[in-house]
Every structure is written in structure tokens, then in C-alpha cells.
Design a protein that fits this description.
Blueprint (H helix, E strand, L loop, with lengths): L6 H10 L2 H6 L5 E3 L2 E4 L11 E4 L4 E4 L5 E2 L1 H9 L3 H12 L10 E2 L2 E2 H21 L4 H9 L4 H6 L3 E3 L5 H8 L4 H6 L3 E3 L6 E3 L4 E7 L5 E8 L9 E3 L12 E2 L1 H11 L1 E5 L2 H9 L5 E4 L6 H8 L4 E5 L4 H16 L3 E4 L8 H8 L1 H9 L4 H9 L8 H15 L5 H15 L3 H18 L17 H11 L5 H10 L8 H16 L3 H8 L5 H11 L11 H23 L6 H13 L3 H15 L1
Parallel strand pairs: 15-16, 15-17, 17-18
Antiparallel strand pairs: 1-2, 2-3, 3-4, 4-5, 6-7, 8-11, 9-10, 11-12, 12-13, 14-16
Length: 604
Amino acid sequence: MSKTISKNTLESIRARLDIVELIGSYIALKRAGSTFRALCPFHREKTPSFHVNPHRQIFHCFGCGAGGDIFSFVMRHEGMPFPDTVAMLAEKAGVVLDLDERAEEGGLDKNALYRLLADAASFYHRTLLESPSAARARDYLAQRRLNAETIETFQIGYASPGWDSVLNGARKKGYSDEQLETAGLVLKRENSAGGYDRFRDRVMFPICDEQNRVIGFSGRTLGSDEKAAKYVNSPETPLFRKSRILFALHRARRAILDAGEALLCEGQIDVIRCHQEGLTAAVASQGTAFTEDHARILQRYANGVLIAFDPDKAGQEAAVRAARIFFQAGLAVRIAALPAGEDTDSFIREHGLDAFRERLTHAPSALRFQHKILADAKDFGSATWTKRAANEMLETVAHCPGDIQRSELLKELGELLLIPESRLFGDLNRLLARRRRGDSEPDPAAPAREEAVRPREEVELCAHAVHAAANPEIVELIAQRLPWDALADPACKTVLETVVSAARDGREIQDALFEQAGPDSEFQRFFSGLLASPPKIMGPESSHADAVKDMILRLWRNKLKRERQTLAGPDTAERQTQITYDLYHLKTWEDGQDVIDMELAAKS
């Protein structure tokens, strides 16, 4: 997408999308007076410091400093570049982008890919419902007891056995072979021109992103060829990144927020079964192990995860590996134990929803689950077993970045192994020391950015300035009396200059500030913090104008003190005397006005 998106376009998108509704679709917001508050999705915290101001249409976290508008939030939350963010929000707002504002990067039109994949999903779905060739697919879904509503909700489809059904259908709609290949729907022929459908004779499950846009597919074979893969997934594409995709998250997001816990299943059918039965907090990874990206995504919505994997050895080991990843993100982890030979889908079908809920309710902590797995060893209870179990379980504990969570897990581990907590603490410290020596990555709990330290007087003056829309006296005080050359911080100077310029031109101060800022830039975070924090005044007899006068006096005093310190030589005595006289009279605004006017006149 062109980065020269018009200001009118951005303003139209901002005007049509309410920031409270938008951010509320990602995290749980609670009203706090005239604003909304939540735990910050960008750093770990226990007390909400993340605020959303519906009047100003901004957000700001007083803990980590994140702040800005709807574009900044989505860019940070989704990890998306600015052009993609604009395209996504424009679609949500119903704003049509100009030709030079379309989502094109290196000739790639992502919007066209989204349309192509949505059309493919509709094509597969119609084929399942209407084509005689899909009879086996319909029988398969009936055997799995997936009802018509579920099939419609998840837009389950069928890819016919033909080699070019999607290829020819997409060509008729005007899509190019290159777009079909880029979207992962078609493969190139090796020894001849053209291509052929990637998915053939498979039940098709569309994979959607958090905005409910189709970005890929997973196809379940119906054939009897034992060499054929049971599931075939879309390859990595510009839209489809397996390490960042959670199946059905767009449908599970609200339930996860409400419950504070996500239910993690092993496959799409498991997730679909859960949703059909009303367990709508269920998600699954997309043909890959859970990753740190998955953990970060879930951290936005939940405080913990409940893992329900297959009970075989591979499933148990995968559950422990996943637990460590989620511990590292600061999430609590429980793991549900299923009977041998069962998975989530088969257990619910055979034993009923209530029995499955019972398993979930009594799911043990990750450490207790790991202990149970290790206890199946033949040498259980021996000194050798205890040492091995302690080492493996301490490795799990070591993935927790937080001291409190780590301490609680150590206590639990001591109870499970009957080992004094003090001994475990020493072993854990040695393990962590070894990890630190071999791990140069930054602490994931640390703030993502280190913001600049700014002069307090200048920041306070900016705070009053950005709220001065209804107080022209403040703007004129700043414009006429401020020692502009004394401002040390470039961002503060830009804020003050922008406020004065906007007020004199009759423009909205907030809009003018956003025009000056790059998306999710340090400058935007700075002034969004100012907008989110009403400036304070001292005492009931004081006013905002009085506070501004006081800060202007302080800036003048600081300026003159610095000048006096740098003066040297016999010709400077008169100037030093004048500065001393000026400093004396700058103690009050009444006396200081004349001094400031004389200084400004002398300079001009």
C-alpha cells in the first residue's frame, strides 16, 4: 500500500470506528467514570493501568507508555504494518481506499488474495452441499455428528477429486494463476505450463484470522491411500503464518475473555465439536506445535489456558512442551487427562458433554500432570527417579518469568516430590543461571521500548497545552511569552508549536497532533499520554492559566540561570547583573511580565 495515504482517508476511518468498541473486541474493558480501563495487553500487570478515552478516541497505558489511536492499537496488537492496518480498518469502517491506497506491497494485492480465498471457501462449501461427488464427504460429517448449523457456521466444504475445479472457477472470476499460487490454492506443474488444485477429494476447513477473513485451508482426506497425508494444510503465504494462527480464535475470542481461560485442543474437529456443544472458548494450533506467538496472542485475552490433548505419549509430551511456552508468557496452565484411545471429539461423542466438563473442571495443574506422566516410570519412587523428575519439572518451572508464579510452582513441586522448597530453590537458581549464560535474549517481561526522559516543566506545560482547546488565553500565553529557544526536548517543542498553530488556524488540536505523528511512534505515544491525563492545578484558588504562567516563569528562570553560568570575561559583568535583577523579579507573574517582555524585545 502506498504510504502516502490521505489525511482525509485516515480521518474518515477514525470517525467511523469507535475506539472503545474496537479495543473492546480484543480485550475486556470496564467503565471507570468517563473512560474505560483494562489490564494492558502490551505488558504484564496485575492492576489495570490501560485507559481508553471515548471522547478523545485514544488509548494510553500508564504502566508501559503505549498509546495512540485505533491505528496504533491494531498495529501493536496484531503486529501489522501501517498499510495493512489501514486496509483492515478501512474495510471494517466501510471506507473505500483510493487506487493508490490499496494494500499493494511489491506488486502484491493482499485484498485480492482475501477475496480469492473467501470465494474459494464459498465454492468448497457449495460443492459440499450441492455436488453429487460430495456424498462421501456429507456421510463423513454425518458420522462425526456435525449438524447443519455447525457446517454452515464453520463454512465446512469439500474439494472435488478433479485436478482443476478451483483453478478453472477462479480463472472465470478473473483471478490470475499467480494469485492462485500465492494464496496456496494451486500448485505449478513441474514439466509443463499451468497448474493444478492443491486440495482434491478432501473435506475442507477454512482457516480464518481474528478479523474472520479466510486466510487458508485444512483439508481432511477421504481417500483410502495410506500414503496420502490425513490432513493437508495451506502452505505459508503472505496471509497464512502457521506460527501465528489459532483455529477458531475469531469465534472463541469473546468466550475466552469472559472465562479468562482458553481451551486448547489438538485439531480442528476437536474444536468444532466443542463449539457445537457450547464450549466456545476452544481453539487449536494450525498443524504445528504451539509457539511463543500463540502464547502472546492468547495472553491478550486470557489469564490461563486449559490443554486437552490426545492422551498418547506424543500428546502428553506436546502438552508439557506447550505448558512451558504458556508459562513463559505468564499464563496459568492446566492439563485435562483423557482416557487412553480418546480425543476431545470422540470423548464428547461417546461419553457426553457433562462428562467432558467434569474432566475440564478437575483438570490438574501442569506440574501435577507432568508428575503423573513421570510417575508411570518403572523406577518410580527411587532416588534416581526423584532426581530425574525434579530436574525435568524444574525445567518447566524455569520457564516462568514472574517471581510470584515461580514461587507458587516451587511450593507445589516440593509437595509433589516431598523435597524441601529450599533445596529446590537452590537448584532452580543454578538452572536459571545456566540459562542466562546461554541466553542473550531480552526479558519478555521488560517494556518493549525505552521512552525518552523529558524535562518535567516542559511536559507539564504540554499537558496544559493539549487540553487548551476551550482556553485561548493559555494558547496566547504560550505563543507570546514562552522562551522557545529554552525548550530542551524536541517532542515537547513540536507539541507546543502544533497546539499554537492549530488553535490559530481554527483546527482541532488533537487532529493536528495526529498529523504530526507517525503511526505508533514515540511522539504519538507521548502526546496520547498527555491527552489521557488531565493536567493538575494547585489548590482551589488556582487555574490552568495560573499553572501555565508558573511553568513559563520556571522555564525563563532556568534559561537565565544557564546563561549566567556560561558568561565569562570582563565584558559580562553588566549582563550578569541584569540577569540577577531579572531572576529576582521572575518570582511572580506580575513582576515577571515586564522582565519577559524586555528579554523578548531585546532578543528581537
